[in-house]
């Protein structure tokens, strides 16, 4: 093994790497670190101050005197190099190939915990994950103060090792799902994992599907609920979001705010959300099918209005729909990529101006403009962004099939979509459960959100080791009004 100081010459090619020599008992003591990664106060007060007190003492006395918990001794250069890149200070005594002391002095500079930006809710906590893994784990531990909560860390990536933490409840989470999740994390072969969303795609059962098979979130309370339900969560250092699995299709249309609202209101909002998704997928394609092949099915009440709105439009319905759908997507992308205030202005003003101009120029009909606008609004009701993007993409195959075969094309596309969903799984769990395979005991928290007195059992499709949430004996007992 080469001595460490010559190997530090490679790191010294970076301007922010510091390597200097400190004499102790006439023997050189080498200290190396990246000044951009460490906290200077920790270095001065807790590390260098200990070196000044070792005038008449040996190198072995240094390790127990450093008042920092995260430290270790190693002679493995790969480990030493990895630690230095994570904000550790390396100390070696002389040129010999002897163990090196590694002391954690990483800088804690980062974004403070703020309100959620993507999953903002009126009810419930107002905290979101940040880029620091340690802070994110703290947010989870505060909400799951259980001795059964287990956190395992892994290093992922060949070019730059990234810290990935897996959270689950020991004695509750299904061991098969847990083993599959951990195995896929360990099997990831990629040079650099910059965000948890990359990791999320790499461990999914079918990476070629446009349907996500795990849920990403920035809310610690949502992760706490998922972990307590028996699901497995993963977080990456440097990423302000987490993801958990296994999941089914219906969980993508459930927002965690549903559990903070009264169950009747939450159930109605869920029904509106799911109906909106169906409308967003089928509305434009039904318009193309009816206007192209099934004009006789239009009611006499609406026929004069539709005919008068399309009388001056020179394009067939398919071209008209594609133009309007692309305009909506352009406005959406422009609003998302621009700064917040400018993006809102572009979305509102652009939509009004382009919509009015398109109708006046006879490029589209008023009727279609209303359908496309409602379809775009309906797609925004999906609380998970990745599923919202999936719903947006799904509209185009249905529109094309409606132009080719009419309502039969929509039916064929629906059958193909259902067949694809039947084949999907999340960590081996069927994607359409509890409807297929049918689990009648799990239907209570799918389309509607029942009162908490009905949450006696956890989802059976998660196959948890502790199915019961609480003792059901006295759950229906009513107190006297004077108690």
Automatic annotation (TrEMBL):
Keywords per UniProt: Membrane, Transmembrane, Transmembrane helix
Transmembrane residue ranges: 271-293, 343-361, 367-386, 398-422
InterPro entries, A to Z: Spore_Ger, UPF0353/GerABKA_families
Pfam families: GerA
Family statement drawn from the similarity comment of this UniProt entry: Belongs to the GerABKA family.
PANTHER family with a match to the protein in the record: LEUCINE ZIPPER PROTEIN 4, SPORE GERMINATION PROTEIN
Protein name, per record: Spore germination protein
Organism expressing this protein natively: Paenibacillus violae
Organism ancestry: Bacteria, Bacillati, Bacillota, Bacilli, Bacillales
């Amino acid at each position: 093994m080469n001595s460490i100081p010559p190997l530090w010459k490679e790191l010294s090619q970076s301007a922010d790497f510091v390597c200097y020599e400190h004499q102790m008992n006439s023997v050189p003591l080498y200290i190396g670190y990246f000044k951009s990664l460490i906290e200077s106060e920790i270095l001065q007060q807790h590390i260098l101050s200990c070196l000044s007190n070792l005038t008449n003492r040996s190198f072995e006395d240094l390790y127990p005197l450093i008042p920092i918990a995260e430290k270790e001794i190693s002679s493995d250069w790969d480990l030493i190099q990895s630690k230095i890149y994570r904000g550790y200070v390396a100390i070696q005594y002389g040129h010999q190939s002897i163990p090196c002391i590694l002391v954690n002095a990483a800088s804690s500079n980062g974004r403070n915990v703020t309100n959620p930006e993507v999953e903002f809710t009126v009810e419930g906590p107002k905290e979101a994950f940040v880029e620091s893994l340690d802070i994110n784990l703290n947010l989870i531990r505060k909400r799951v103060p259980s001795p059964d909560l287990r956190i395992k860390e892994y290093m992922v990536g060949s070019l730059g090792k990234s810290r990935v933490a897996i959270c689950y409840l020991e004695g509750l989470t299904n061991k098969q799902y847990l083993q599959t999740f951990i195995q896929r994390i360990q099997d990831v072969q990629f040079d650099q994992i910059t965000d948890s969303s990359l990791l999320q795609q790499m461990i999914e059962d079918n990476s070629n599907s446009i349907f996500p098979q795990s849920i990403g979130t920035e809310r610690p309370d949502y992760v706490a609920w998922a972990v307590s339900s028996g699901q497995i969560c993963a977080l990456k250092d440097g990423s302000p979001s987490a993801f958990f699995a296994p999941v089914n299709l219906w969980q993508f249309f459930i927002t965690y705010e549903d559990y903070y609202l009264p169950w009747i209101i939450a159930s109605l909002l869920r029904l509106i959300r799911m109906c909106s998704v169906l409308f967003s997928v089928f509305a434009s394609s039904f318009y193309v099918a009816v206007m192209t092949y099934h004009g006789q099915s239009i009611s006499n009440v609406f026929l004069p209005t539709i005919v008068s709105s399309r009388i001056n439009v020179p394009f067939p319905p398919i071209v008209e729909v594609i133009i309007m759908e692309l305009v909506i997507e352009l406005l959406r992308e422009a609003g998302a990529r621009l700064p917040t205030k400018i993006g809102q202005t572009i979305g509102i003003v652009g939509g009004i101006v382009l919509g009015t101009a398109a109708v006046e120029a006879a490029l589209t009909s008023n009727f279609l403009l209303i359908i496309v606008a409602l379809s775009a609004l309906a797609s925004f009701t999906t609380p998970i962004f990745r599923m919202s993007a999936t719903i947006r993409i799904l509209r185009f195959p249905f529109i094309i099939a409606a132009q080719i075969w009419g309502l039969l094309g929509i039916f064929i596309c629906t059958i193909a979509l259902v067949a694809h969903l039947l084949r999907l799984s999340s960590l081996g769990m069927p994607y359409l459960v509890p409807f297929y395979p049918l689990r009648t005991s799990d239907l209570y928290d799918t389309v509607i959100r029942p009162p908490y007195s009905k949450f006696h059992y956890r989802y059976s499709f998660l196959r948890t080791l502790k199915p019961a949430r609480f003792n059901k004996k006295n759950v229906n007992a009513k107190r006297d009004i004077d108690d």
